[in-house]
Amino acid sequence: MFESYHAGQLAIQKKTGEEEIANRRLPKFQSTLHERSVRFIERQVLAFLGSEDASGDIWISLLVGERGFIHIPSLKEVKFDLSKVISNQSDIFFKNIETNPIVGLLFHEAAKRSRYKAWGIARKEEDQVSFDITMGYKSCPKFIQREKIEVPEDSKSVSPAYQNGTTLGTSEREWISSAHTFFIATQTKKGEIETSHKGGNPGFIEIQENGVLRIPDYFGNSIYNTLGNIYENPKAALLFVDYKRGETLQITGKAALEFDQNSADDLHKSGDTGRFLTFETKQWIRTKDHHKVNTRFVDFSKFNISTNAEDNQG
User: Fold this and answer.
1) CATH number of the structural domain spanning residue 206
2) Of 38, 86, 90, 173, which one has the fewest beta carbons inside 10 Å?
3) Which of 198, 191, 187 lies closest to 235 in space, CA to CA?
C-alpha cells in the first residue's frame, strides 16, 4: 500500500499549498495494477518506457506493437510479446534494462484521452519482456490532444536509421518548437523512474538562445510526480514522436525548476501558475523509420493555454 509521497513531492505540494488535495489522492496509488486498468492496457498498441543507461543517464523509448502485444497475467505483472512489436527493436531501452531493470511505464491512448502509469522491474525472457509491477496509478487526462493511432494489418518490421548529437540542430529545434505533445521521464533520489506526458498548443515549448528548453507547468492533479522528482534529482529525459513520419527524437539531459515567474507574460504562458521547468540537452538520438502506423489528428485539449501573446490582454 502506498502510504506517503517522497520528500520532493511533499516540498512542491507545500510550496503550492496543495497538500490537502494531494493527500486525498493517495488512495489512487496501489502496489499493483488497478483491476479496471487491465482491459485498457491490453488493448494498447503503444507503450512508453523510461529507463536508465549504464552511465546513469535516463531515456524514454516508444514500443509499437500489434494489438494484443501486451498481456497481463496478474495485477503484479505485465508482459510484452516482442514477436508482435513492429517498432525499432534495437532501441536503447533493450540495452538499458540489461544493466538497470528499473522502468517507468506509461500506457497512453490519445484518442480516448486516457493514460495509466506503472512502475516496475524489467526481465528479458527470449521473445518477451516482463515487468514486475511495484505501483500503479490512473493519471489525469488533462492536456491530451486527441489523435487516433492504429497499426496497419499488413504491418512489417522497420529498418531504422539513426542520427545523434549533443546539441540540438535546426531541424530538431523546429520539431520541438511546433510540438503539441511530448513525454518526459524523471527519477527519484532512490532511482525509481516515472514516465509522464505533457501537452499544450504548438509553441508552448520555448527554446532559449542558449538551447535550453523552457516548458510551462500548468495546473494538474496536485501530486507533482514530475516536479517532485526534479526537485530531488535533476536527471530527465524527453521523447518527441512524429507518428506520420514514423520518427522519434529521444533526448537525455538535466532539468531544473522555476517558480514565482510572475510577469504578465509568464503568468499567461503558464496558465497563472508562474511555474516552469527548464531542460538542458546532454545527448539526443533521432530515429527514422522507427515505426509505421496510421494516424489522424482529431482536436486539441480544451485545457490548453493560448500561446498567442495578444491573448495576454484583458
Assistant:
1) 2.30.110.10
2) 90
3) 187
Do you know the residue count of the chain?
314
- pLDDT bin (cut points 50, 70, 90) of residue 154 is confident
3-state secondary structure of 19: helix
75's grid cell = 495485477
Domain annotation covers residue 208: yes
Instruction: Please give the DSSP secondary-structure letter assigned to residue 144.
Output: P
pLDDT, residue 126, reads: 87
d(CA 151, CA 67): 8
Question: Tens digits of per-residue pLDDT, 68-77?
Answer: 999 999 999 9
Residue 307 within a domain: no
pLDDT at residue 2 is higher than 80:
no
Q: What angle separates helix 225-232 from helix 7-16, to the nearest 10 degrees?
A: 120
Q: For 89-127, list the strands marked E by DSSP.
A: 102-109, 114-125
Q: Is this model's pTM higher than 0.90 or not?
A: yes
CB neighbour list of residue 110: distance below 8 Å, 6 or more residues apart: 144, 145, 146, 147, 148, 149, 181
Number of domains making up the chain: 1
